[in-house]
Amino acid sequence: MSIEVVKPGLSTTVQDLGRPGYYHLGIPLSGALDQYSCRLANLLVGNDESAAVLECTLLAPELAFTDNAIIAVAGAQATPRINGKDVESNASLAVKAGDTLGFDLMKAGARTYIAVAGGIDVPMVLGSRSTYALGAIGGLHGRKLAAGDRLPVGNPGREARAGRTVDIGLVSSMAKELALRVLPGLYFHRLTESSADTFFADTWTVASEADRIGYRYRRGRALHFLERQQPFGAGSDPSNIVDAGYPYGSIQVPGGLEPIVLLRDAVSGGGYAMIGAVISADMDCIAQMQPNNKARFLLVDMPLALSARAERQQRLVRLRAALAG
Known about the structure:
six-stranded antiparallel β-sheet; 14% helix
Protein backbone atom coordinates (compact mmCIF):
# COMPACT_ATOMS: atom_id res chain seq x y z
CA MET A 1 0.00 0.00 0.00
CA SER A 2 1.21 3.53 -0.70
CA ILE A 3 0.02 7.12 -0.58
CA GLU A 4 0.84 9.61 -3.32
CA VAL A 5 1.63 13.21 -2.41
CA VAL A 6 -0.36 15.41 -4.80
CA LYS A 7 0.43 18.66 -3.00
CA PRO A 8 2.96 18.63 -0.14
CA GLY A 9 1.61 21.53 1.90
CA LEU A 10 3.95 24.05 3.48
CA SER A 11 6.09 21.63 5.48
CA THR A 12 4.94 18.03 5.85
CA THR A 13 7.29 15.46 7.35
CA VAL A 14 7.18 11.90 8.60
CA GLN A 15 7.43 11.84 12.42
CA ASP A 16 6.98 9.39 15.26
CA LEU A 17 7.75 9.84 18.97
CA GLY A 18 11.40 10.62 18.24
CA ARG A 19 14.90 9.19 18.72
CA PRO A 20 16.08 9.86 22.28
CA GLY A 21 19.52 8.69 23.34
CA TYR A 22 21.75 10.46 20.83
CA TYR A 23 21.64 14.06 22.05
CA HIS A 24 25.15 13.78 23.48
CA LEU A 25 26.33 13.04 19.94
CA GLY A 26 24.61 16.16 18.56
CA ILE A 27 21.61 14.29 17.14
CA PRO A 28 18.41 15.81 18.56
CA LEU A 29 15.19 14.13 19.63
CA SER A 30 13.15 15.00 16.52
CA GLY A 31 9.70 13.37 16.51
CA ALA A 32 6.26 14.96 16.61
CA LEU A 33 6.26 18.42 18.17
CA ASP A 34 2.76 17.79 19.55
CA GLN A 35 3.28 14.35 21.03
CA TYR A 36 -0.26 14.08 22.42
CA SER A 37 -1.96 14.72 19.06
CA CYS A 38 0.41 12.24 17.40
CA ARG A 39 -0.54 9.56 19.94
CA LEU A 40 -4.24 10.37 19.59
CA ALA A 41 -4.17 9.98 15.79
CA ASN A 42 -2.37 6.64 16.08
CA LEU A 43 -4.70 5.25 18.74
CA LEU A 44 -7.73 6.17 16.66
CA VAL A 45 -6.58 3.95 13.78
CA GLY A 46 -5.45 1.10 16.03
CA ASN A 47 -1.71 1.74 15.66
CA ASP A 48 0.89 1.56 18.37
CA GLU A 49 1.41 5.09 19.72
CA SER A 50 4.94 5.10 18.35
CA ALA A 51 3.91 4.50 14.71
CA ALA A 52 5.05 7.05 12.14
CA VAL A 53 2.53 9.69 11.05
CA LEU A 54 2.56 12.80 8.91
CA GLU A 55 3.10 16.11 10.70
CA CYS A 56 1.67 18.98 8.64
CA THR A 57 2.59 22.58 9.46
CA LEU A 58 0.19 25.53 8.82
CA LEU A 59 -0.85 24.31 5.35
CA ALA A 60 -1.75 20.62 5.11
CA PRO A 61 -1.08 18.44 2.05
CA GLU A 62 -3.29 16.81 -0.54
CA LEU A 63 -2.88 13.03 -0.63
CA ALA A 64 -4.14 10.33 -3.00
CA PHE A 65 -4.69 6.76 -1.80
CA THR A 66 -3.83 3.82 -4.02
CA ASP A 67 -5.55 1.29 -1.73
CA ASN A 68 -8.32 1.18 0.85
CA ALA A 69 -7.13 2.50 4.20
CA ILE A 70 -8.18 3.65 7.66
CA ILE A 71 -6.98 7.14 8.61
CA ALA A 72 -7.40 9.69 11.39
CA VAL A 73 -6.61 13.38 11.68
CA ALA A 74 -5.78 15.13 14.96
CA GLY A 75 -4.18 18.36 16.12
CA ALA A 76 -4.81 21.78 14.59
CA GLN A 77 -8.34 22.76 13.59
CA ALA A 78 -8.23 22.18 9.83
CA THR A 79 -11.30 20.43 8.43
CA PRO A 80 -10.29 17.30 6.49
CA ARG A 81 -12.04 16.59 3.18
CA ILE A 82 -12.29 13.31 1.32
CA ASN A 83 -12.93 13.95 -2.38
CA GLY A 84 -13.91 17.51 -1.45
CA LYS A 85 -16.48 16.50 1.19
CA ASP A 86 -15.97 17.60 4.81
CA VAL A 87 -15.30 14.75 7.25
CA GLU A 88 -14.54 14.56 10.97
CA SER A 89 -11.29 15.20 12.75
CA ASN A 90 -10.46 13.10 15.83
CA ALA A 91 -12.20 10.06 14.35
CA SER A 92 -11.11 7.01 12.37
CA LEU A 93 -12.26 7.20 8.76
CA ALA A 94 -12.37 4.73 5.86
CA VAL A 95 -10.87 5.85 2.56
CA LYS A 96 -11.09 3.88 -0.67
CA ALA A 97 -8.55 3.33 -3.41
CA GLY A 98 -8.60 6.43 -5.61
CA ASP A 99 -9.82 8.76 -2.84
CA THR A 100 -8.11 12.08 -2.24
CA LEU A 101 -7.62 13.67 1.19
CA GLY A 102 -7.36 17.44 1.44
CA PHE A 103 -7.86 20.16 4.05
CA ASP A 104 -9.07 23.70 4.51
CA LEU A 105 -6.90 26.27 6.29
CA MET A 106 -5.80 25.79 9.88
CA LYS A 107 -8.15 28.05 11.82
CA ALA A 108 -6.47 27.36 15.15
CA GLY A 109 -3.31 25.45 15.92
CA ALA A 110 -0.25 25.07 13.71
CA ARG A 111 0.20 21.32 13.22
CA THR A 112 -2.12 18.58 12.01
CA TYR A 113 -1.26 14.89 12.34
CA ILE A 114 -2.40 12.28 9.82
CA ALA A 115 -2.22 8.65 10.94
CA VAL A 116 -2.80 5.67 8.64
CA ALA A 117 -3.50 2.18 9.97
CA GLY A 118 -0.22 0.33 9.62
CA GLY A 119 1.86 3.49 9.97
CA ILE A 120 4.08 5.27 7.45
CA ASP A 121 6.59 2.52 6.70
CA VAL A 122 9.80 4.40 5.90
CA PRO A 123 13.12 2.91 7.10
CA MET A 124 14.17 3.19 10.73
CA VAL A 125 17.23 5.37 11.42
CA LEU A 126 18.72 5.13 14.92
CA GLY A 127 15.53 3.55 16.19
CA SER A 128 13.10 6.08 14.72
CA ARG A 129 11.36 6.97 11.46
CA SER A 130 11.28 10.68 12.36
CA THR A 131 12.60 13.23 9.90
CA TYR A 132 15.56 15.36 11.02
CA ALA A 133 15.86 17.64 8.00
CA LEU A 134 18.98 19.52 9.16
CA GLY A 135 20.85 16.23 9.31
CA ALA A 136 19.02 14.76 6.28
CA ILE A 137 18.18 11.57 8.19
CA GLY A 138 14.98 9.63 8.79
CA GLY A 139 11.59 10.16 7.23
CA LEU A 140 11.35 10.01 3.43
CA HIS A 141 14.86 10.69 2.12
CA GLY A 142 15.60 12.87 5.16
CA ARG A 143 13.47 15.79 3.98
CA LYS A 144 9.99 17.27 3.93
CA LEU A 145 7.56 15.82 1.40
CA ALA A 146 7.43 16.94 -2.22
CA ALA A 147 4.79 16.56 -4.92
CA GLY A 148 5.01 13.14 -6.53
CA ASP A 149 6.43 11.36 -3.48
CA ARG A 150 5.01 7.95 -2.64
CA LEU A 151 4.74 6.98 1.01
CA PRO A 152 4.84 3.28 1.87
CA VAL A 153 2.29 2.12 4.46
CA GLY A 154 2.63 -0.90 6.75
CA ASN A 155 0.07 -3.64 7.25
CA PRO A 156 -2.90 -2.55 9.39
CA GLY A 157 -3.34 -4.26 12.72
CA ARG A 158 -6.44 -6.09 13.91
CA GLU A 159 -7.60 -2.99 15.78
CA ALA A 160 -7.91 -0.91 12.61
CA ARG A 161 -11.51 0.09 11.97
CA ALA A 162 -13.52 3.12 10.97
CA GLY A 163 -15.97 4.82 13.30
CA ARG A 164 -13.77 5.16 16.38
CA THR A 165 -14.15 8.59 18.03
CA VAL A 166 -12.92 10.31 21.17
CA ASP A 167 -14.67 12.55 23.67
CA ILE A 168 -14.04 16.26 23.09
CA GLY A 169 -12.63 16.50 26.61
CA LEU A 170 -9.68 14.37 25.48
CA VAL A 171 -8.91 16.59 22.48
CA SER A 172 -6.37 19.37 22.96
CA SER A 173 -7.69 22.91 22.77
CA MET A 174 -5.91 25.26 20.38
CA ALA A 175 -5.75 28.50 22.35
CA LYS A 176 -4.33 31.60 20.69
CA GLU A 177 -3.07 32.97 24.02
CA LEU A 178 -1.16 30.77 26.45
CA ALA A 179 0.65 30.84 29.76
CA LEU A 180 3.83 28.79 29.39
CA ARG A 181 5.23 27.52 32.68
CA VAL A 182 8.97 27.97 33.08
CA LEU A 183 11.60 26.63 35.46
CA PRO A 184 14.52 29.04 35.99
CA GLY A 185 17.70 27.92 34.23
CA LEU A 186 21.38 27.76 35.07
CA TYR A 187 21.95 31.30 33.87
CA PHE A 188 18.79 32.98 35.12
CA HIS A 189 20.91 34.74 37.73
CA ARG A 190 22.76 36.53 34.90
CA LEU A 191 19.65 38.67 34.22
CA THR A 192 19.31 41.99 35.98
CA GLU A 193 16.57 42.01 38.61
CA SER A 194 14.35 44.30 36.53
CA SER A 195 14.73 42.10 33.41
CA ALA A 196 13.93 38.99 35.41
CA ASP A 197 10.68 40.71 36.38
CA THR A 198 9.76 42.02 32.91
CA PHE A 199 10.42 38.65 31.26
CA PHE A 200 7.52 37.19 33.24
CA ALA A 201 5.39 40.35 33.22
CA ASP A 202 5.35 40.99 29.48
CA THR A 203 3.13 39.44 26.82
CA TRP A 204 5.22 37.98 23.99
CA THR A 205 4.20 37.36 20.37
CA VAL A 206 5.19 34.33 18.29
CA ALA A 207 7.44 35.51 15.46
CA SER A 208 7.33 34.18 11.91
CA GLU A 209 10.66 32.45 12.64
CA ALA A 210 8.95 29.57 14.43
CA ASP A 211 9.76 26.07 13.27
CA ARG A 212 10.82 22.64 14.48
CA ILE A 213 14.16 24.01 15.69
CA GLY A 214 12.79 26.75 17.91
CA TYR A 215 10.08 29.32 18.50
CA ARG A 216 11.11 32.97 18.62
CA TYR A 217 9.04 35.44 20.64
CA ARG A 218 9.07 39.21 20.28
CA ARG A 219 7.35 42.46 21.31
CA GLY A 220 8.34 42.17 24.95
CA ARG A 221 10.88 44.45 26.56
CA ALA A 222 14.56 43.78 25.87
CA LEU A 223 16.31 41.81 28.58
CA HIS A 224 19.53 42.98 30.15
CA PHE A 225 22.28 40.78 31.52
CA LEU A 226 24.64 41.75 34.31
CA GLU A 227 27.89 43.14 33.01
CA ARG A 228 30.93 41.00 33.60
CA GLN A 229 34.33 40.32 32.16
CA GLN A 230 33.57 37.64 29.62
CA PRO A 231 35.57 34.45 30.24
CA PHE A 232 37.85 32.99 27.59
CA GLY A 233 35.75 31.12 25.05
CA ALA A 234 32.60 33.21 25.52
CA GLY A 235 31.38 35.80 23.05
CA SER A 236 31.53 39.52 23.66
CA ASP A 237 27.82 40.02 24.46
CA PRO A 238 26.69 39.53 28.09
CA SER A 239 24.15 36.98 26.83
CA ASN A 240 27.03 34.78 25.62
CA ILE A 241 28.58 31.99 27.67
CA VAL A 242 31.26 29.40 27.18
CA ASP A 243 29.53 26.69 25.14
CA ALA A 244 27.17 24.48 27.15
CA GLY A 245 24.49 21.88 26.48
CA TYR A 246 20.98 23.02 25.58
CA PRO A 247 18.14 21.11 27.26
CA TYR A 248 14.98 20.48 25.26
CA GLY A 249 12.62 23.38 25.93
CA SER A 250 15.38 25.70 27.10
CA ILE A 251 15.07 29.44 26.55
CA GLN A 252 17.91 31.54 25.19
CA VAL A 253 17.84 35.28 24.47
CA PRO A 254 20.54 36.23 21.93
CA GLY A 255 21.60 39.80 22.56
CA GLY A 256 18.85 40.06 25.17
CA LEU A 257 16.28 40.89 22.50
CA GLU A 258 13.98 37.98 21.62
CA PRO A 259 13.56 34.76 23.62
CA ILE A 260 13.84 31.50 21.66
CA VAL A 261 12.38 28.25 23.01
CA LEU A 262 14.35 25.32 21.61
CA LEU A 263 12.29 22.43 20.23
CA ARG A 264 12.86 18.87 19.07
CA ASP A 265 15.18 19.60 16.10
CA ALA A 266 17.41 22.08 17.95
CA VAL A 267 21.16 21.70 18.19
CA SER A 268 22.39 20.18 21.42
CA GLY A 269 24.65 22.98 22.62
CA GLY A 270 26.05 26.44 22.01
CA GLY A 271 27.12 29.74 23.46
CA TYR A 272 23.90 31.45 24.60
CA ALA A 273 22.83 31.60 28.23
CA MET A 274 19.78 29.45 29.02
CA ILE A 275 17.66 31.55 31.36
CA GLY A 276 15.02 28.85 31.85
CA ALA A 277 13.16 25.93 30.34
CA VAL A 278 9.49 25.48 29.49
CA ILE A 279 8.21 22.50 31.47
CA SER A 280 7.61 19.26 29.55
CA ALA A 281 3.84 19.38 30.11
CA ASP A 282 3.59 22.61 28.09
CA MET A 283 5.79 21.73 25.13
CA ASP A 284 2.92 20.32 23.06
CA CYS A 285 1.17 23.68 23.46
CA ILE A 286 4.07 25.54 21.85
CA ALA A 287 3.87 23.22 18.85
CA GLN A 288 0.34 24.48 18.15
CA MET A 289 1.10 28.20 18.34
CA GLN A 290 0.75 30.10 15.07
CA PRO A 291 2.75 33.25 14.27
CA ASN A 292 1.22 36.26 16.09
CA ASN A 293 -0.27 34.09 18.85
CA LYS A 294 0.44 35.46 22.33
CA ALA A 295 2.25 33.94 25.29
CA ARG A 296 3.11 34.82 28.87
CA PHE A 297 5.89 33.03 30.70
CA LEU A 298 4.94 31.90 34.19
CA LEU A 299 7.63 31.13 36.79
CA VAL A 300 7.08 27.78 38.56
CA ASP A 301 9.08 25.48 40.81
CA MET A 302 10.05 21.82 40.40
CA PRO A 303 7.18 20.35 42.49
CA LEU A 304 4.65 22.12 40.29
CA ALA A 305 6.47 20.98 37.13
CA LEU A 306 6.41 17.37 38.33
CA SER A 307 2.74 17.64 39.24
CA ALA A 308 1.95 18.98 35.75
CA ARG A 309 3.89 16.09 34.20
CA ALA A 310 1.91 13.61 36.29
CA GLU A 311 -1.37 15.23 35.19
CA ARG A 312 -0.28 14.94 31.56
CA GLN A 313 0.50 11.25 32.05
CA GLN A 314 -2.91 10.68 33.63
CA ARG A 315 -4.55 12.32 30.63
CA LEU A 316 -2.74 9.83 28.39
CA VAL A 317 -3.98 6.99 30.59
CA ARG A 318 -7.56 8.21 30.16
CA LEU A 319 -7.05 8.52 26.38
CA ARG A 320 -5.71 4.98 26.11
CA ALA A 321 -8.58 3.64 28.17
CA ALA A 322 -11.15 5.49 26.05
CA LEU A 323 -9.74 4.03 22.82
CA ALA A 324 -8.80 0.57 24.05
CA GLY A 325 -10.00 -2.10 21.68
